[in-house]
Amino acid sequence: MIGVRDIGPNEAGTAARVLAGAFADDPVMARLVRPAARNRRAKLTELFRAAVLSSRPQDVDVARRDGSDEILGVAVWRSPAGGGPLLRAVPALLRAAAVLGPGSLLALARYDLAVRPHLPPPPYWHLVDIGVSATARGEGVGTALLNHRLGVIDARGEAVFLEATTPESRRLYERSGFQACGALTGVTAGATAMLRPAAPR
Question: Which residue ranges run through the membrane (predicted)?
Fold first, then answer.
């Protein structure tokens, strides 16, 4: 059985490594950190560590097999309440900026500009990142992570926004009730903004 809970106080590094592995071949990440970049996995890990730490701990879910300490999957959300404590995230954000360099930061800014026109009116949740360890793919970990948080969101009657970076991920999200709401122009072929409307209370 796969269990999902909030991230623990000392698990940001492990969660970031899981996400870095899951996104190693992602086309958007290839624009942010080039596949030939030196120490690419370490750079991706710093980027995801900053994402984890800039969210509230109760908005980051980790999945494990029952009785195991190994993190198999991670989902990073932005709730309508916003991000995490700024002071907690600043060191990670600065380190990520230093490691990534100006070219990657410019690509990140362009990506943000492509996403902004598609954001729904608040309140809404944003699924920032979701990834599963290579050792656990095909075991329903991603579905468990999605269903865990979507159950909470549906009970609150709020919408969810995300970006599908590949046609395969788009099909996965469509099965969970997400609808395409526009192409992310200039990002990468097939990248799509998606919205899951608020469920009736």
Answer: none
